[in-house]
Structures are given as C-alpha cells and as structure tokens.
Amino acid sequence: MSMATGTDTRSSAPHAADSHDLIRVHGARENNLKDVSIEIPKRRLTVFTGVSGSGKSSLVFNTIAAESQRLINETYSAFVQGFMPTLARPEVDVLDGLTTAIVVDQQRLGGDPRSTVGTVTDANAMLRILFSRLGRPHIGSPKAFSFNVASISGAGAVTVERGGQTVKERRSFRITGGMCPRCEGRGTVSDVDLTQLFDDSKSLAEGAMTIPGYKAGGWNHRLYSESGLVDPDKPIRAYTTQELHDFLHREPTRMKIAGINMTYEGLIPRIQKSMLSKDRESMQPHIREFVDRAVTFTACPDCGGTRLSEGARSSKIEGISIADACAMQISDLAQWVRGLDEPSVAPLLTALQQTLDSFVEIGLGYLSLARPSGTLSGGEAQRVRMIRHLGSSLTDVTYVFDEPTTGLHPHDIQRMNQLLLRLRDKGNTVLVVEHKPEVIAIADHIVDLGPGAGTAGGTVCFEGAVEGLRAGGTLTGRHFDDRARLKEAVRKPAGVLEIRGATANNLRDVDVDIPLGVLAVVTGVAGSGKSSLVHGSIPAGAGVVSVDQGTIRGSRRSNPATYTGLLDPIRKAFAKANGVKPALFSSNSEGACPTCNGAGVVYTDLAMMAGVATTCEDCEGKRFQAAVLHHHLGGRDISEVLAMPVTEAEEFFGAGEARTPAARTILGRLADVGLGYLTLGQPLTTLSGGERQRLKLATHMAEKGGVYVLDEPTAGLHLADVEQLLGLLDRLVDSGKSVIVVEHHQAVMAHADWIIDLGPGAGHDGGRIVFEGTPADLVAARSTLTGEHLAAYVGA
C-alpha cells in the first residue's frame, strides 16, 4: 500500500524536462536595445509591438532567432561550417531555453527572371515529374519540361584507359531540355528602339547619338566617329548596308583609334553589355529613364511567354500541357489535380495536392505557378514561404514572423490569425512582430518596446496580456483602440485621370475615372487587381511619381545622408567654408581613414568562426582621416554632423554660418515622414522595414510630378505613426498634388476623399470595380467586404 502511495507521489511530481518552459533573454544590446531582459513563454503566441525603429526586429530577429541559428550551425563539423554563412554571436549576456528557430521574414523572393512561384515552392518540380510519367506523347525525363534546362547534344572521340591500353572510342550525348531557345526561358524578348539611340537624319559629327554618355567629343562618341568604319559626316540614314552593320552589330574588334589600342564593338551589343545587363534599381536616374524609353520587353513570339519549348508544350495530360497548368489560377489547378486518378503516381499527386491546397488555405489561390517571384509583394512573398511549414510535422520549434498581415485586407487577416493559432496549437512557440490590433488581440503574451524610436527606444515598456496593454498607458496601449473617423466634408476633384479598357493581369476591361486633386484610395482583397490597375494601367506621361514596396539596396557604407543625396550639399558647404575639395568629406573617397578604408570598423576573418569587427583605433570609428576632422562648419566637424539626428541637423543647417538651404530642404522631408530621430550617418542595414519605406517616400517627394502613387505606405507603421502619415498625405494634397494610395488600412480608407473598391474576390473572381464613391457612401451601402469591415471599424 505504502509502495503504491510512494509511486503515485513520484509520478505526480513534475518531470525535470517540463521545467524548460521559458525563453530567457538577459542583457540584450543589439543595435538600439538597452540591456533588455525578458522571459518569453514557450508554446504560446507572443506578439512584439512598438513604434517603427523601437527595437522589435533587433530583439526577435537579430538576437533570439540569430542565436538559435548560430547554435544549430555549430553542431556541424568545421569543414561543413566553412561552406555556411558565418553568424556572429549577438550582443547579449544570457540566452537560455532556445529552440530551433524558423524565420519567415519579408525579404523579397529572388528577382531572377527565371524564378517563378512554381520554382520557389517546388510545385514546378512535382509537375515536371508528373508530366514526364503521364504526359502523351512522352518526350523525356523531367528535364524536358524545365525552362531552366536547354537542349544540347554533342559527339566526339574520347580516350579510355582499358586493360593497360589506351583505346579511342566515339561517344555522343543528348540532353532534352524544356527551355524555349529564343527567349532562353525568360518568357520575354527585349527589343531596342533605334529611334531612341540616334537621330538618323544627322551625321555623327552633328551629334546624332542621343544616348547618355555618348556626347560629341567624348570617348564613347570618338570610338565610332574615328573608327574609320563609317563616314562621320554622312547622315546615318544614308549609310550602306555594310556601314550600318558595322555601326550597329559588328562583333568586338581590336583596333587603333586616335593612337590608342581599343576594342570596337557595334552600338547595340555595347549598350546591352554596359546598360541593359545591369539591375534597373541600381542605375542612375538618367540612365534608368533612357533604358525605360529605349527598350521594350514583349512576350516571346515563339513560346507565347510560357518559357517552354514546343516539345514541352506538345506533351499533355487530359488535354492540358504543363504550360497550361502553370498558367492556371492555383485554386483551379488544385481542382484539376484532384481529378487525376492514377495509382502509379499516387504519392506524387498527394504531395502536389497538399502544396496547392496550402496556397488556397493561406489566401494565395489567386496566383499562378508561372507568376515571376520578383513581382510578389513583401506580404505575398512571406506567405509563399509559410506554405512549406503549414503541413509540417515538426513541433516544439520557434516560428518567427515579420508582420505577416502586410498587404492583407481585413477580411484576410482573420484567416492569417487562424494559421498562427494553428501553428501554436501544434505545440510551437510563435513570435510575431506586428502592428495590427487584430493580431495583437489574439496574443497570449505581448511585449511592447519603446517608448520611442532609435536612441529613444530599446527598452521594454510592457509585458503581459491585452487587457494589461490597454490599461498600461504605453504608446501602443493608448493608441490600441484608436479609430479614425469618417470625414464630415470631402474635397472636390480638380479633374480626373481616365483609365479605359484596362486588362492587365486579372482586370476585366475596367473603365474608371480616378479623381485628381484629392486623396483617392484603391482597395480590395489581396489579389483583386489593385496594383494591376494603379501600376499597370495608369497612362505613361501622366506626371506620376510612384513609390512602390521595392527594397532599398545599400551596404553598411550607405546611410540616410548618401541615399537621399543630402551628403552632396553638406560636402560642398564644408569645402566652401574651408577652401578644400568636397571629396575630402566623403568616407568613401579621399577623406577616408586609411586603416579601415572609411568603414569605421576593422573586420578580422576567422574562417568558419564568426568574423570579428572591432572599432578602428586610428579614427575611433569616425571613418575620416584626422586631417579632415580639423575642418569645421558652424563649429562642428563632418563626423559630428553625421552623428546628428535629423531634427537637430535641420536646425543646424537652417541658420548661422552653417546655413545650407539645399540640405535643410531634404532634412525637412525626412522629418515630414516621421524620421526626425534617425542619425544622418546610420547604416541603411540597421533600418527597419517601415523606416526604409518612409526614407524612400522622402526621396520621391523631391521628384517633380503632379500625381503621387503610394503602395501600402502604412506597411511597418505603428498605430501612432499612421496618424502622422495621414497628416503628410493631407499636406501633399493641400499643396496641389493628387495622391492615389493602394491601401488596406481602415484609418487611411476612412480619411480618403474617394474610394475605389475592387473585387469581389481574388484572381478570376476579382478584377472588377465593385464600388466607387466617398467612404461615407461605402459604409452606408455595406455592399462589399471592404464596406462591411470599414463600417465595423468606424463603429457605424
């Protein structure tokens, strides 16, 4: 009896393994974190919130997730680690109770022209195997259906050592690939408009060439005018066939021009190598403008834009080719696969079915597998990454999400919430960085960082449940129940921007008049055709300044001052005040500290161990030579100016000896978009997603144009920052601009003068205008999904 009691006593005591139910972080100091110490419950949904730049990503991604991944990498041998990215240990005293972290962030998917939704999710790989087994006529292995594999063949003699003798044998081989030979699997062909390269009524001597950098007298121009292959005084339209070929298409030829050995090459291949092969985003503005004007991309006439060879398109299953399958809306493709009954490939059909069903479940059923991955928005890219985790059998892992509701209509947010809760209920720890109150409301635990952004943030203001957050008095708590009211009076349009017969992507011959001189909001569920209408259908030359969600590219050497062009007037002001060259005041040019090359830190590579970055001892992290720091403007040296926050710099360059109107104008725009706390020299790599988007907006505000098109400007913005954004949009409209916003945020909808709602669904269920009018009319009608959610938001 006593033995049984003893056994019962032992079994009721908690097992030692069950005591590890917290992730403990002590003394985190990454980026702007100020010695943060918190305990996060495992197997629960924890939401991290706070204003943009308060330290959420620094804590979740750069500390917890980074250390988890680093520890996993360390389990491999030194040899294997040599092939893996080296991760430095985060600045933190103690990290305890970590589990394997799976990071699902908002990094854009690869922009490679051959990367599609099907290739990044492995759905294409499964389809290729399916068609190689069931397709009729049979044309070959799965490679025969891949637009990344070219068809090649060869034959020749090979030498083989056999039985101590050398024997020559004839061998031949053939690989059947699915790549369209004309477009090389890209689906589009580029055509150069010759009228944009030169004026054929003029001669070279008269300055016929209109390409940037090819002015008369320059080396690019002399290469052609002094080559001896064409007559520089003859109009281009009078060239003989041979002269025109030499001028436009001649293959590279070594020759002496003006006494210098040079390589002569036809104008078209030379431009293709020097300009067209570069990434469009990295081009200088005037080069980008020329490329947009001179090059047209059209669907490949041989494959019809499908990327696949004729052979790959000829093999079919029940009348459907692989090109047809990839072009289908995924929800329709899932239905088609469900109807295939073939026991010989049953496991493959099951796996493909699960993948396609996951697309539909996650709200991406409106995509097609042929959609280029570079065209997906940040929110869509993140949801595509989620697909491989939905059916996963893994439990007790930590899922880390970066604003998973970005780009989602309020209707779709409920579905995303269900997915997050499902991952948690499988026994996983779910960490979410998020601003939307709908997601914060379902959290088991909330960590609110702040109180401000940048140096004013980096501390934990609140930990606990939603009720505690509401009563806690933090910035997030105070704004949690904020609701923008409908305008009592809306602005009257000053004109309209006509769109007629729009058919881009899923749009169904849409006719719409977008009012000008007001704040117009284009909304609708994800995939309803908003971006197709605004970015794909607004007529060219309408004076449009477009601010999309494309990423800002920049290394550790890039900062807000270099990105916005602010550094140019600052350098000139320093040079003028001190009588020296402007290049001295650039840490990437003559003024750079020679020890660290202007980086401010010295990197020591330790092979498979994480590299060590130490502050440069010579310049003490200031990045400039000592001689440069002797030059002052308004009593400050260049390193002190770059360490100033935007608001302080705006005052500094606004009056006194340092008065520089050009610099003050740019600083004013940065303050306008809510970036007054950023320091001018802060590396772009340390900025959060919301900060980068606002930096981009500030830069575009300098462009001359009457119509601003903004793509989800509230992405990454805290509830308190949305108010400031609405004020900025109002100021833009009041200054005479027309503002068109593609947006899901109800506060922006409520604040609009005019709403255009697309739908009613996504993909082929959308593409129509379901409402046009004022927000008040939309709420009163409640005729669309958007109307219902907006009415609930404003409490109507």
Automatic annotation (TrEMBL):
Biased composition (Polar residues): 1-12
GO MF annotation terms: ATP binding
Annotated ABC transporter domain residues: 17-476, 484-785
InterPro entries xref list: AAA+_ATPase, ABC_transporter-like_ATP-bd, P-loop_NTPase
Principal subcellular localization: cytoplasm
Keywords: ATP-binding, Cytoplasm, DNA damage, DNA excision, DNA repair, DNA-binding, Excision nuclease, Nucleotide-binding, Repeat
Key word Ubl conjugation present: no
Protein family per UniProt: Belongs to the ABC transporter superfamily. UvrA family.
Protein name from the UniProt record: UvrABC system protein A
Lineage: Bacteria, Bacillati, Actinomycetota, Actinomycetes, Kitasatosporales
